[in-house]
């Protein structure tokens, strides 16, 4: 709590630190009103100097609001997917957690994925279940879950296919430098 007369705030107003956001807010001890923005009647030039001297490690609320809005917009542009990767001899790194050296051809990898795709689409199994045992990617231990990602974070072919999917939809076979994938958008 900070109710210094040098803060530029009107009478009964004080500066407090939010426990949840770790940023200052303004509190009126008489009316119990609180606000992220300085109250009416604040001498903003005095407040600015006071905040710079006493709370310089904290961003002003308007900057925090703009940053939060930008972060929220960025989060909305991210999607979450799981995938099942089958590598082949032409993959950029033809090895995996299952096989030190992958010797299957691209055609053999495609045949494997076609069978996996058929089994998933007919409801025999799920992509997550198959990814856990069959994927050549280290995400296999998480059922193929890649977490959230945005544009520019994945190989272009993978990204284009993933962003074209609706939530709950699975792609057909997608080829990238890593190998052949089935991709399921989860969020």
Write up this protein.
The protein is built from 5 helices and 7 strands. With about 190 residues, the chain is an alpha+beta fold. The strands form 2 sheets. Strands 5-4-7-6 form a 4-stranded antiparallel sheet, sandwiched between helices. The longest helix has 16 residues. The chain is elongated and about 75 Å long. The two termini are about 40 Å apart.
Strand order of the largest sheet: 5-4-7-6
What fraction strand?
15-25%
The total of helices stands at 5
Order of helix and strand elements from N to C terminus = EEEHHEHHEHEE
Put the structure in a nutshell.
Helices cover 32% and strands 19% of the residues. It is of the alpha+beta class and 187 residues long.
């Amino acid at each position: 709590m900070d109710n210094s007369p040098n803060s530029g705030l009107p009478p009964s107003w004080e500066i407090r630190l939010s426990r949840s956001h770790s940023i200052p807010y303004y509190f009126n001890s008489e009316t119990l009103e609180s606000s992220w923005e300085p109250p009416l009647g604040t001498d903003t030039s005095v407040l600015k100097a006071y905040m710079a001297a006493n709370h310089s490690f904290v961003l002003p609320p308007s900057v925090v609001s703009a940053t939060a809005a930008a972060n929220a917009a960025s989060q909305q542009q991210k999607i979450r997917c799981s995938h099942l990767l089958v590598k082949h001899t032409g993959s950029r790194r033809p090895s995996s957690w299952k096989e030190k050296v992958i010797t299957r051809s691209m055609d053999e990898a495609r045949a494997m994925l076609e069978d996996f795709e058929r089994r998933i689409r007919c409801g025999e199994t799920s992509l997550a279940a198959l990814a856990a045992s069959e994927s050549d990617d280290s995400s296999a231990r998480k059922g193929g879950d890649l977490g959230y990602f945005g544009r520019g974070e994945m190989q272009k072919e993978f990204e284009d296919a993933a962003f074209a999917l609706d939530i709950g939809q699975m792609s057909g076979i997608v080829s990238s430098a890593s190998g052949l994938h089935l991709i399921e958008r989860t969020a």
